[in-house]
Structure to design on (79 residues):
C-alpha cells in the first residue's frame, strides 16, 4: 500500500509541475497576444487617420480627350 501511495504521490507531483510550466507558458503567450493586439490597433488607428487627412489623389484619365478651345464672338479663344 505504501508503494502505491508513493507512486501516486510522484505522479501527482509531476502533474503539478507540468501544470505550473504550462500556466507560465500560457501567461507569456497571453502577454505576447496583448502586445500584438495593441500594435495592430495602433497601426489601424494610424492608417485610418492617414486616410482621412491624406485622401488618395484622383488620377486623371489619359484616354479621354481634353476639351478643345472654342472661338468666342470677339475672336479670342475660350477654354
Amino acid at each position: 500500500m505504501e508503494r502505491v501511495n508513493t507512486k501516486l504521490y510522484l505522479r501527482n507531483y509531476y502533474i503539478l509541475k507540468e501544470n505550473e510550466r504550462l500556466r507560465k507558458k500560457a501567461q507569456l503567450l497571453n502577454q505576447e497576444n496583448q502586445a500584438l493586439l495593441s500594435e495592430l490597433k495602433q497601426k489601424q488607428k494610424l492608417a485610418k487617420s492617414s486616410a482621412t487627412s491624406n485622401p488618395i489623389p484622383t488620377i486623371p484619365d489619359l484616354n479621354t480627350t481634353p476639351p478643345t478651345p472654342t472661338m468666342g464672338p470677339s475672336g479670342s479663344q475660350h477654354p
Observations:
- The first strand starts at residue 70 and ends at 71.
